Amino acid sequence: MMSGTELPGAQGQAQPRAAGRPLSSAQRKKAGIAAFFAVLALVSGVGLLKTDYLDVKSVVEEAKPGVFTLDRCEHSGGTDQGPSTFCYGDFRSSDGELELTDVPLKESHDAEGTEAGEAFPAHALRPDVGPAEVFRTDDQGESDLAMRGIGALGLALLGVMLGGFAGRMMMGPGPARSRLGAWLGFGTVVSLLLWLIGRGTGGGFWA
Hints:
The chain has four helices and five strands, in the order H-H-E-E-E-E-E-H-H.
């Protein structure tokens, strides 16, 4: 039985009004932070995919095939900035037309497990085309390159997931919001694994 102060349908309207309330300043701030990191991760991932995978693939197609003989690897950097490794050696093209001395290996991690004096298949840019750089192109070199690409894709995917979380914060409570949160959580774990495993294996930052 309704009291004199109640309006018909008032109870049924209470929940939609609560769900449709404007976001609080704290919620807007959280959504904004998530959106910022989403854009940062997405842009960084796409940038890494271009510079560390697509650009290398296109350069290798134009570079001359040959053999790279490792001479030395130098380590530098302190504990604050992390160690850096730079590997150098000599390159000789298969046709003998291009010889480079003391040229850097583009990805020093590609020399892991190789001792001074050992050689492996590689491609090198001619000095008149661009900087003298050598890219390892045997199975290990191609595997490292693929893993660096996978790591970059993982970082870009992480940006998409963070963008999804930002959008989820704009939704009202309900089953759809819960389902989206579960999928975004799963996608975030997958993207982090791709990023860490891909970049760690292909770039050697934990090797």
